[in-house]
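Postdoc handover notes: sequence design on the structure in folder B. Input tokens:
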């Protein structure tokens, strides 16, 4: 899973199918463990993910909890129809914020951060 620092405040994680999804998701969580609130918002790009299992969902929930505790945001984008159905059946579609693609995720995070 390549991690891309889009800016100091946004990290993009490109996800792939198992077994890499589970193994490298832990790397993402580890990257977000520094002391203080100095962690970025995260975009999880699932364009290369064709299926999810319960372990994957648990990892996503753990990521969400980590980010919320640090007052950071999470976007999940480019979700395949089969993967989307897993989110819907588990009702996690109501818990996470989804966008169509990385560009839309970036725009939504930047708009929310803009001073009013």
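Designed sequence:
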């Amino acid at each position: 899973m390549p991690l891309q620092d889009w800016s100091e405040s946004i990290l993009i994680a490109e996800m792939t199918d198992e077994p890499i999804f589970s193994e490298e998701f832990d790397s993402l969580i580890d990257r977000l463990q520094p002391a203080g609130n100095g962690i970025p918002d995260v975009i999880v790009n699932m364009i290369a993910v064709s299926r999810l299992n319960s372990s994957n969902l648990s990892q996503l929930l753990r990521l969400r909890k980590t980010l919320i505790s640090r007052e950071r945001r999470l976007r999940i984008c480019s979700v395949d129809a089969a993967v989307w159905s897993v989110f819907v059946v588990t009702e996690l579609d109501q818990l996470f914020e989804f966008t169509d693609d990385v560009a839309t995720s970036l725009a939504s995070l930047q708009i929310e951060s803009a001073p009013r």
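Context for whoever picks this up: The beta strands are 3-7, 10-16, 41-48, 74-77, 98-99. Don't rerun without checking with the PI first.
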